[in-house]
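Students often ask what a 'structure token' actually looks like in practice. Rather than answer in the abstract, let us consider DeoR/GlpR family DNA-binding transcription regulator, a protein of 285 residues. Its sequence is given first.
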Amino acid sequence: MSENQNLLAEQRRALILDEVRRRGGVRVNELTRKLNVSDMTIRRDLDALARQGVIEKVHGGAVPVVEASTHEPGFEAKSALELSAKEDIARAAAALAVPGSAIALSGGTTTFALARHLLDVPDLTVVTNSVRVADVFHDAQRPAGGRGARPGAATVVLTGGVRTPSDSLVGPVADRAIDSLHFDVLFLGVHGISAEAGLSTPNLAEAETNRRFVRAARRIVVVADHTKWGTVGLSSFATLEEVDTFVTDAGLAPQTRAEIGEHLPGLLVAGDAPDEADGASPAEG
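Now compare that with the structural description of the same chain:
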């Protein structure tokens, strides 16, 4: 059987994952017919998805891994996942930040990657509840000589609060700090995203802090790789309709892109040709 050259490995694996989650399980022979690839290719794809922890291989096929809705991986564990996708997303999302604007960054490994790209955007005021994100800006503030602040360096405000396993600060202290502020744009990382549950997290206190972020922002930009689609945490904190732009990677299946487009105005797929990205524009201050 000839290989299907029209699909990149990441796109094919995204289709397989979507099929597994939608149907609750698939067989290898079904996938070979559907995707027009060899049995060996499908087995390699299933091996790769199993290593990512998103499926479980069973005899003759695969089933989805169902995590407890309260399971919250630590920052280091999440940092090793989807590295290239997070870099693509971070690069695309950074182009939406306007010099001199006030922005907020929530916690997460994708916003951590985004922070590094935002260092090149001058005169930002950055509010974050992420210890890791704050460290990125603080470490870059001083010029090579070590005297004074780097020209154009961001002004960074860390909210304070109780630290979560993902190194975010949450709780009443963080909530009160956010309530008194207003942002031009919020860059929001998520644990899970779906049409039914919207944006969700396994941490109840983090959900409340994220609600405060959403209320304080003029524009909401969600940054999340394709594996987050279909994941549902314990607590929802925003609907898809509240999101202005969803920045993701090219691994997101085409049918999922169409479904997302029914709920929010802007979908920016990092790695797609410019005319394939719909509705994304710089976040005006």
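One point worth highlighting: The chain has a mean pLDDT of 84. Ask yourself how you might have guessed this from the sequence alone, and why that guess would often be unreliable.
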